[in-house]
Amino acid sequence: MTRETLLPRLAAHVLEHGIAGLSLRPLAMAAGTSDRMLLYHFGTKQRLVAELLEYMAAGYEVALDTVLPPGRAASRAACLESVAAATRGAAFGPYLVLWWQIVAGAAQGEATYSAAAGAIMDQLLGWLEQHLPADDPDPGRAARHMLTLIEGAQMLDAVGRPQIADAALAAARSAL
Q1: In which domain, by residue range, is 109 found?
Q2: CA 52 to CA 50: how far, in whole Å?
Q3: What is residue 74's three-state secondary structure?
Q4: Which of 6, 12, 20, 73 has the largest CB neighbor count within 10 A?
Q5: Domain total for the chain?
Q6: Are 47 and 111 in contact (CB under 8 A)?
């Protein structure tokens, strides 16, 4: 086995079981190897988690590309609507559970989670910028605004307040 063959198996396990309280033995079992072999391939548990989160962030971006129309959106509002609808849907549920666990780790000052959260946010900002209309006057600003709205909507969904998120997104769409 190689890192490249281990990462998809580890990612599937983490999407199913989460990352909170992650230990090497269950990961190794899910990957069909031993905890010693995981350490052989990744060096440390911290490095394994970091590489796993990088791998999963790339998978999230691929998942977005799969469910959203290709190319640039016709407008900021269309981009916001399609991304919010897709990421708030059931298909992204496992990613969101994992995301909030990463955010919790970052909030507790865990360096691996902070680094992963920052990298994921940078990646999503870049993805949003690339999907805004080609003639957008300020895609960086628009992407930051939309990312804040989308993340807020996802958080409100997670705490059982989707109606607040729906109202805020509707107001934002009309203002964009």
Answers
A1: 3-175
A2: 5
A3: coil
A4: 6
A5: 1
A6: no
- Name the pTM for this structure: 0.82
Per DSSP, helices labelled H in the chain are 3-17, 24-31, 35-42, 45-67, 76-87, 93-107, 111-131, 139-158, 162-175
Quote the percentage of the chain above a pLDDT of 70: 100
CA distance 14 to 11: 5
Give the CATH number for residue 63: 1.10.357.10
Distance from C-alpha of 163 to C-alpha of 65, rounded to nearest angstrom: 27
Tens of pLDDT, residues 112-164: 889 889 988 988 898 899 999 999 999 999 999 999 999 999 999 999 999 99
Tokens of 89: 């849907």
